[in-house]
Amino acid sequence: MLQALQAGLGPIDNVVGYLRVTVRRTAANRTMRRLREQPVPEIFDMPVEEDSSAYDHVNEGAVKGAFEGLPEQWRAVLQLSALEGKSASQVARHLDISPASASSLLYRAKEALRTAYLRHQVSSDSPECTRVLHRAIDAMRGRATSRYEELIEAHLQQCARCRDERGHLAQLNSGLPNKKPAKAESGCH
Ligand SMILES: [Zn+2]
């Protein structure tokens, strides 16, 4: 099956168009979600802000680079689910894995795409600044340890360019779904 996907895999332009459309649809999707509590198989499906005009522009190069850099199986699951609209059970049959594995794989692939998308927006040519900004992105996506947060803050205090870049990345990130939206339902905070 993966071979068939590889042969027919040419969805890069589709991914760009797909992400652009879903970013524009975010506010509408949130309303839809309130009405029917079913997961929508989209990548950018949980906006933080109602006004999506700031996120209308999707950086095509970043999308392509992010998608192409993902492991093959993750690209496959994103193509089947997000681009072709297949359900988790259909994806499971295609990839010959259990539905639970398919759901888990899709979840991880979407998050990996979001993180990679943000990483591809980093424009610094300094290895140290790039490393700090990648860690800052991890923190935004809920993955950093406090050890890294101290390193990030120490660097930002002395690097104005990274402060600016982080602000830009945080704005982009605010247009993406949270890593674990289920947390919001757990009643914490
Ligand atoms: Zn820096």
Overview of the structural elements:
With 189 residues, this protein is mostly helical. The protein folds into 2 domains: 1-120, Arc Repressor Mutant, subunit A, CATH 1.10.10; 123-180, no CATH class. The protein is 65% helix and 0% strand. The chain is built from 10 helices and no strands. It has helices spanning 2-8, 12-24, 26-35, 60-68, 72-83, 88-95, 99-119, 127-140, 146-158, 160-174. The longest helix has 21 residues, at 99-119. The model is unreliable at 1-11, 31-55 and 181-189 (pLDDT under 50). Bound molecules: zinc ion.
Rg measurement, Å: 17 Å
CATH topology of the largest domain: Arc Repressor Mutant, subunit A
Query: Which range best describes the helical content: under 10%, 10-25%, 25-40%, 40-55%, 55-70% or over 70%?
Result: 55-70%
Q: Which of globular, elongated, flat, extended, rod-shaped describes the shape?
A: elongated
Helix/strand order, N-terminal first: HHHHHHHHHH
Number of strands: 0
CATH architecture of the largest domain: Orthogonal Bundle
Structural class: mainly alpha
Fourth CATH level, the homologous superfamily of the largest domain: Winged helix-like DNA-binding domain superfamily/Winged helix DNA-binding domain
